[in-house]
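Bit of a strange request maybe. I'm writing a small parser for structure token strings and I need a real example to test against, not something I typed by hand. Could someone generate the tokens for this chain?
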Amino acid sequence: MSVRPARAAVRLLSPEQLARDLAVRDLTDPAAGPHALQLVVDRAVAALAGRWGCPVRVHRGERVVTVADNYDHLNYRADDVTRDARYTRYVDGGRMLRSHSSALVPGALRALAAEGADAPESVLLVCPGVVYRRDSIDRLHSGTPHQLDLWYLTHRPVPAGPADLTGMIAALAGALLPGAEYRTEERVHPYTLAGRQLDVAAGGNEGGSGGGPGGGNSGGGGGEWVEIAECGLAHPEVLAGAGLGPEWSGLALGMGLDRVLMLLKGVPDIRLLRSTAPGVAAQLTDLAPYRPVSARPAVRRDLSVAVDGADLAEDLGDRVRDALGADADCVETVEILSATPCHALPPQARARLGARPDQHNLLVKVVLRHLHRTLTDAEANALRDRVYAALHQGAVHQWAAGPAGGAAQPR
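Reply from user aminoacidic:
Good idea to test on real output. This should exercise your parser:
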């Protein structure tokens, strides 16, 4: 039986929002056309299938999944914060848009269990696809990222163990980002034991591949660490829940495909992965280094807004995406610079915001940059006002272009 989110009321997607989300192209699916993300999947699968000499089973499944498969069958607690509607796109009380590719794994495990005595001795389960998040807006984050789950299952006499996990990490890092430094840190996941997080050293702040030579668990060589995967030993309770007996063991790994591709090719902005501009799209059918297309100037707008409760960057990003629709690609960054309880503000400041004492005042940096052309001042101001209208929950509004310029009317 599926468990409903632990927090108050469930926020459901409207039919329009659901239709919009289901229309998003899955860049990992060859049926939707070629894309470099598919080559990343192929590299990862070839590295592990070659390592273990086992058959491969690809399981895509549906984008709308049961809450049970997304959470319960992966051992998430009933009160886990990730079930909150601020992080999850619920369709109804029992279904949701998958929030991670791991939601496809329980179905793949059940299919393996159904084979009974005909099941192979070992198998690599491959679950790729677009997933749906309520996420912040910046160069590395998207509300519709792509992920890949790779689960190695075996019922050989010697069960899969930590040494096998270390080998799996090394094989993937070497195949996907050859020469890049990487490190692992301990992490707890509900569906694994001995969990780890895999970080790769980016060469700088633009997502380029590399760090120093070799592939160890050493320092970042002056760049930044970028998380690309989480993994561990497949939890016996997850396997048992799918109908696999105690003779089965395995390794579980989930990775962010967009970040791997950005590191591998040196793509500086996640929005570029969906670009239809010929000069960009032509480069996203192979794994050759990305050749920068002339960058458009950025426009910065700082907003002072009143919000209900302690909104996070993820909440703001989700509201902006909903409000702007197709124009959301013009927003490069939404960043909270400071947060102040409105009761601590001077009376004049509260009056300018039309804020209640129980609200919070956020100073938000908004960076606007169209990927393919320069925004005019009028366009930037109209976008600023639409973002502002989506975020500000006070009674008084300060418009740049004015409501007639395209922003929502004051509430």
